[in-house]
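Risk register update: the risk of archive-format incompatibility is retired. Evidence:
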Amino acid sequence: MKRSTTLIANRILLFLMVLIFSGCKKKDQFPLNVISVVTEVGNYKILNLSDYATEIRYVPLETSDLSLITYIEDICCENEKIFIYSSFFGKSDCLLFDNNGKFCSKIGQRGQGPDDYLNLTNRLIFKNFIYLIDSHKILVYDLNCNLIENRNLQSDSSIPLEYRGENTTGKSVPLTKDKYVIMKNTLYGYYPNAMLIEFDQSNAKLIKEYPNYVKVDKKPPGIYGEEQGIMYHFQDEVRFYRAINDTIFSISQNTEIKDAFIFDLGKYKTPLALTREDNLVRLTESKFIQPLKIIESNTYLFVNINFGIHTPEPYVSINRLGNPMQNANVYGIFDKLTGKLTLMRQPIKGKLGFKNDIDNGPVIWPHYISTNNELVTYISVTEFMEYYKKIDNPSPQLTAVANQIDMDDNQIVIIAKLKE
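Archived output:
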């Protein structure tokens, strides 16, 4: 009897060890920060907004001569403010609205003056301040649109020449109030580079460089993605990404860098050495797959991926000039808790994003995620009305918006509260 009990105990112990070993092995094989695109090619599904958000509201932006918006290049919603960067054919405006769409003020102006901006490469609200960043300066405003700091990126010789002026993308994000991560525009060599600078009064000083040991003989053509890169905040960290790396890097408050997420593209990865024929091909005709843009919430990554010839639903969109443009993009959502990537089908032909089953409204996809975990996007009045007229039983909220707007009005901001 004792021997039988011991044998059973040993078998149970062996079984538990096998389970533990298998679990560890699976974790090693499928780390949660690897976004496996290659395994999901061919698998697409329509996703409902109600599975990710609990409520939605529409905010028509006040329209006047001072607040007229041409083309929205950036949108940011923080501290009950809506920041819009409008840019079209050399005309650019930074506009601030309150949370109900009422116009507050313009912020700065484009020009050659000492407190003007010339070519904004980043615009954001961070910890109660508004940052307007170009390749030569960083303008900092309070939420009342008062200029409080003008920080020169070229005034201190401690910053290497390759990080100044035309040699840098000017793509920058504050890590703290006085520390900034800046990306370098690399033509060849180790690609890409970034640096951390700190301001002492108005002068910038180099604190640290972040080389990435991916070496290329020449810069791949910009046709293969946003080689100037993407930079954004997530909580207290700065994330940055360039398509050539397949890696989203993250710099924390202790100034250390880590791999936050890695795209596994397998055989679809763009090679470092491209042929002449590859250089000339359009994105829609590319045989490679390339993530282009990432937006991050507490739980998810919302990813815009160019699928080239592999796209299941090629479509035509209208660009800012009003001309038709061929597209091969596929949207995907990556669950950071489970490590699962889901590639999405178009709920309506030519419209990418979530099927809006909350109020039967327009298709939704984020342009921004707020620190309050809100999905923020926008829609033109024309597109909204075209969609509204096709709905059999529009919700009272949609009807109220339709009755409020005119066809020449500014865009409508859409805000959806995401589930935690």
